[in-house]
Design a protein that fits this description.
Layout lengths: L17 E2 L2 H7 L36 E8 L3 E8 L2 E8 L4 E12 L5 E8 L2 E8 L4 E7 L4 E6 L1 E5 L18 E4 L4 E5 L8 E6 L3 E9 L6 E7 L2 E6 L3 E3 L2
Parallel strand pairs: 1-2
Antiparallel strand pairs: 2-3, 2-10, 3-4, 4-5, 5-6, 6-7, 7-8, 8-9, 11-14, 11-17, 12-13, 14-15, 15-16
Length: 245
């Protein structure tokens, strides 16, 4: 499925975000002997996003914002990010191509040590995003009268990567810096931070790219970087880049 929430094509949308280390650090602290709370018992069939160019939800707009968690459900896409000491949430409805919530303040709710719970409670609904130690995700929306509006398991989750040592494969390059391509021939720029996604460009060996964003993909085990190179914004696998510093 083409994930079009990140590859933004106008100059204003080419600025992206450093990834929040909060999620990766918290996940790393989870003891492997704990009983795991299952969040997603049935994975829905992934459905394409409602538009083709990513204009529905601008996930990357300001370099002071840091992504903590992103995932999709059958009908929604959710992003939790940090601005200074505050956490915020965006919600995009894939069926209607409408941003239903942007920049809603989020609280991190005390829970079992095997999951992290983000709750955005403002206006007409309470929105809850969860991720557990198995990287299973879930979105729940509860109306002001307490009735359940939506509860869906997630997929295509990516999480924050801390500076320094990490369990994800690849060189750890800080967003907002330059990196040099190490690939023997060319590093492929992909539409999503995952193997098998569409190839939308390439950067030759020893060329310099601007690193805009950084996530860890639990499905393939790699760090992925959103980079800008020769007018194209795409994702490059972390082992194909090296910091200039």
């Amino acid at each position: 499925m083409l994930l079009t929430l990140w590859p933004l094509r106008t100059a204003a949308r080419l600025r992206s975000l450093a990834i929040c280390s909060t999620m990766a650090l918290a996940m790393g602290a989870m003891a492997p002997t704990l009983a795991i709370t299952r969040l997603a018992t049935t994975r829905p069939e992934p459905r394409p996003l409602g538009n083709s160019d990513g204009t529905g939800l601008l996930l990357a707009q300001d370099p002071i914002l840091e992504t903590a968690l992103f995932f999709e459900t059958e009908t929604m896409a959710v992003r939790v990010y940090r601005q200074g000491s505050n956490h915020l949430m965006n919600l995009y409805n894939k069926a209607t191509d409408v941003v239903e919530a942007r920049g809603i303040p989020v609280s991190i709710i005390p829970s079992h040590r095997d999951q992290i719970v983000y709750r955005a409670d403002r206006g007409e609904a309470e929105r809850i995003a969860r991720i557990n130690a198995l990287n299973e995700t879930e979105l729940e929306i509860i109306a002001a009268d307490g009735s359940l509006v939506l509860k869906e398991p997630g997929f295509n989750a990516v999480v924050g990567v801390p500076d320094g040592s990490t369990d994800f494969q690849g060189n750890n390059v800080a967003p907002g810096t330059g990196a040099i391509v190490l690939s023997a021939e060319a590093a492929r720029l992909r539409s999503q931070p995952r193997l098998g996604s569409d190839i939308i460009g390439a950067a030759s060996r020893r060329e310099i790219v601007d690193v805009l964003d950084r996530v860890g993909n639990p499905d393939d085990g790699f760090i992925w970087y959103q980079v800008f190179h020769e007018g194209v914004t795409g994702w490059v696998r972390g082992d194909l880049l090296q910091s200039l510093r």
